[in-house]
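Exam revision sheet. Question 4 asks you to relate a sequence to its structure. Input first:
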Amino acid sequence: MPGMSPSSDDATARHAAEVRGALDRAGYDGPNLEVLLGAPDARLSADEQRCLWMWRARGRRDDRAVLARLFLLESPVPVAAARRALGAEAFAAAAWLGLTRVRGATLLPRAQLGVHGGLIIAGDLGPPIATTERNHSGGPTTATLLLDGMTVRRPVARALDLGCGGGYLALRLATHAGTVWATDVSERALAYARLNADLNGVDGMRFVISDRFSGLRRQAFDLITGNLPFVISPETRFTFRDAGLPSDVFLASVVRATGRHLLEGGLAQYLAQWAHGDGEDEEARLARWIHVAGCDALIIRLEHEPVDAYASRWLAGPGRVLSPAERGRRMTRWMAYYVGAGIRAISTGLFCLRRRSTGRRVFAIEQASPAAPPNGAAIAAWFDAV
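Answer key, structure tokens:
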């Protein structure tokens, strides 16, 4: 957010509480917004869904509809209507936090407030705009929500969200962890994460600027989650998506270092992508990473794609519509990168690592459907069984 730092203070918390109180009074929550707008339709693109919801909220002057147009659908609303919906104190607090700005008789949104898992999550307006593209920090993505559903939800003393972005997964960890640390390389992302903790009334979290584990020194945890910047490509446009290292070197570096930051029996879960080369023994290559980590490992593969299909799916970037000519140029560049790196296919899945300092370690790669991935309870049961 413009002007915000990763740390917070009493004023930020107080203003966030004012805004949250106004949202609660208006019924700005999942069930009430679904009554107003309808449930998401999987057949629609993001733009099509927004258009439908804008149509359903059109002309409505009740507070919930005004706030939905402003914060959920990222649309300007009249200042008078917003002031009535928020109340004078929350109206001023939203501006102080950088969530809104006044232009004449119109109030413009400067952040989106999404509703996910009972939490209100602030993030940059989408799609990424040129001024913030590199450090764009939006709300939870499909990948974030996938990892959320696969996370083991047992009570733990210490938990870490590695590469927390806006903090959604860290806030979910706070429901069953005594202490939660959240790290990111982006100050902008950590500013949102801290704001989101304040918006949801969660105290005591630790926010640390860190490239992977670099800012954590010797800290160790019972549970680590990470929706890593996993896209394998020549791109470095988005901090939240592009690791900026060749092939899957970023993932390998995280996996190898994980054991040093897990307490005995602790579990780490990373949503990730890894590369396949011609004639490569996948199991042997990944097992070397796991051996360095000193962990048991269950790797759940959700997808396996040839690089041309993978590139076609990822090369546009979030929220972008490319012309046929630009898409063709990017396709040529991405495929040249894969040929040069010797990458023929890419897998997507979940790395689950359990720290084990003694005894015979277990390693397995299993296949699951992306439409029905195993949940955290099933993953916990697998480790219990072995």
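Marking note for examiners. The radius of gyration is 22 Å.
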